[in-house]
Amino acid sequence: MRLAIIGQQAFGASVLDAFLKRGDEIAGVFCAPEKEGAKPDPLKLAAQERGLRIFQFPSLKSTPARDVLRGLDVDLGVMAYVLQFAPQDFVSIPRFGMIQYHPSLLPTYRGPSSINWPIIKGDTKTGLTIFRPNDGLDEGPVVLQKTVAIGPDDTLGSLYFNHLFPLGVEAMLEAADLVVAGRNQEVVQDENQASYEGWCRDKEARVNWHAHIDHTYNLIRGCDPSPGAWTMIGDTKLRIYETRKHPVRRFGDVAGKPGEIASIGEKGVEIIVQGGKLELLKVRPEGGAKMSAAEFFKSAGVTAGSAIDDRKTFSEAA
Fold first, then answer.
1. Mean pLDDT for the stretch of residues 205-226
2. pTM of the prediction?
């Protein structure tokens, strides 16, 4: 089949490679323009290496974008990690329209941080959807879906790169074949089951050490590696990555108050929270590199019994 790829990042590059590997014809690749000083996008680099035609329009709503796509005369448009808005008069140009990837089981978790939020909320499953884009955000009819289990210790990184990324590439191929062959059965999304969550960014990623152990643990792993859950140690903003959860079973196992540092070991630092202790293993001070939590806390002169990012500071900065 003759295709146009619209997208960016490593996922877009992998989708491009998958279609080329099996012999499909790529008539053109649409990438968003890079910001000044930014590195070339991985999809753009992959297209350049293969000698493909590349188009970088500031907006897919423009007449030039529509004219170029129309001139490519493609069977299908494949939208692989697209952040630009693509209107109906653009997506309807290919003979069989377009398909788009989204890393959630639509209609739940519409929005830009759809991998973070299921982990943060403690869900045990998520998935991906290939759907028909319309003028709503992630609201078009569903072509196919794949379900993925969320393990109790999965992070944003492990869930995406081990499951949603590779499975998504395969699903794009499968959906394209269904659509072009006319064997797709599209399902309108049930608005009664729909949910929308916005970006998970720094304001959402700050740790409240007085929250329950499950809430805090889920927040840290749902933000690992991006945007990175964080706390303050003195004047240093500290990102938190690898963490272990140690629930308490009895009142006698509780020692200290939430937000206190219980111990600083060879590699990890244990913080008391509601329902147990969280052991921090990997952290990154702002402007620095990742290191063991114990190394950072020792170098910062923090000792057991100290309060970490106390509640007053948390409230003032919220």
1. 97
2. 0.93
